[in-house]
Write a structure and sequence with these properties.
A hairpin with a 5-residue loop joins β11 (154-159) and β12. This protein has helices spanning 2-29, 83-86, 171-174, 282-285, and strands at residues 37-41, 50-55, 60-65, 70-75, 91-95, 100-105, 109-113, 119-124, 132-134, 140-143, 154-159, 165-170, 194-199, 205-209, 214-219, 222-227, 240-242, 245-252, 258-263, 272-276, 291-293, 299-302, 306-310, 316-321, 341-344. It is mainly beta. The relative contact order is 0.12. The termini are far apart. The protein is built from 4 helices and 25 strands.
């Protein structure tokens, strides 16, 4: 009897050891949570909600709460896992009406994915990078920030929900002048570095052109307005009616990087600085990109390693830092950096 009990206990120990070993093996393969550290949190001034971004190292989408805790993940479709393309300017947008995420991967295409990880739309297109928007009729518009010099490649493309190309616009349409070319970006491999597109409520189209320091408003087949003096412009916002006029905002990539306010009615008005990147944390806050207005008036902003909220008056009231992320210029293959993030309302 004693021998039987000892044999049973020994077998149970072996079984438990194998089970624990398998569990540990699985946990080793599971991507760890992002290691965000909250540096600033003025709770009474912060818009409540979550933030989603692309974890390029682990080929997944990640949603975190304002404490940095991971609350949701979804694997990227296999066709969108090329590390070089993912790190070349991928866009992520949260679509509130459907509670889905829209993701564009440079030189690859885009997809829309739901909370269950199901891909609802998947379109391949090599002329895509930096930004995509979904329209009310189910179609999509996106930009190509890396059009090759000397080639007549599309800068803007509109496609149907079935991925059929509806129309495109190439560099010649934008009628940019060589005198406006920013010398800092003259060596870009692209001829016209468009990095953002937005369809306004009246169906005008807003496009930002980084290497020519311009925000361009398009109506049909015409250039309606041209906002110059916007160095390295990124991510222009929607247009807002405020007490003293109509304005939009964007990230200015002069030195230091800033959030800028512009009078939408008068392209010649002097830009107003809303927030300036702290010089002692420029490696974390540059390049400044995401500029997303939140329900309480705050702005969601991102750098390579930081995400934050600033108030309309320019106070940084929430800031999270990712120490294991890299700056965009660095070449650590196994480190993520933030290109864009999107706010997820509660």
């Amino acid at each position: 009897m004693i021998r039987v009990v000892i044999t049973f206990v020994f077998a149970l120990m072996i079984s438990t050891s194998v089970w624990a070993g398998n569990l540990n093996a699985k946990s080793k393969n599971k991507p760890k949570d992002l290691d965000g550290v909250v540096l600033t949190n003025e709770e009474n001034k912060v818009q409540k909600g979550n933030v989603a971004l692309i974890d390029t190292t682990n080929n997944r989408l990640v949603e975190i709460d304002l404490s940095g805790k991971t609350v949701w993940t979804a694997d990227l479709p296999k066709a969108f896992r090329n590390q070089r393309n993912l790190n070349g300017g991928s866009d992520i947008e949260w679509l509130e009406v459907s509670d889905t995420f829209l993701v564009a991967v440079p030189n690859t295409g885009f997809f829309e994915i739901n909370r269950a990880g199901k891909v609802l739309t998947e379109c391949k297109n090599k002329f895509i990078s930096h930004d995509i928007d979904k329209l009310n009729d189910g179609s999509f518009v996106f930009v190509n920030g890396w059009d090759d010099k000397g080639e007549d490649e599309p800068i803007i493309t509109k496609v149907s929900s079935e991925c059929n190309v509806l129309w495109t616009k190439t560099k010649d349409f934008f009628q940019v002048e060589k005198s406006d070319l920013n010398n800092r970006f003259a060596k870009d491999k692209s001829s016209l570095h468009a990095n953002s597109i937005r369809v306004l409520p009246n169906e005008d189209i807003m496009v930002s052109v980084r290497n020519y320091d311009q925000v361009i408003i398009i109506r049909g087949n015409e250039i309606l307005k041209r906002f110059k003096n916007a160095p390295g412009v990124h991510d222009p916002s929607e247009v807002y009616i405020e007490e003293n006029g109509t304005f939009f905002y964007y990230a200015n990539r002069a030195r230091p990087h800033q959030i800028i306010k512009r009078n939408f009615e008068n392209p010649d008005d002097t830009p107003e600085v809303i927030w300036t990147m702290p010089r002692d944390s420029r490696n974390e806050w540059s390049p400044l990109r995401t500029v997303q207005k939140l329900d309480n008036g705050n702005w969601l902003i991102t750098g390579s390693k930081n995400i934050g909220q600033i108030t309309p008056s320019g106070d940084l009231v929430w800031e999270i830092h990712f120490p294991e992320f890299r700056h965009q210029r660095e070449t650590k293959k196994k480190a993520t950096y933030i290109f864009k993030a999107t706010f997820v309302a509660p």
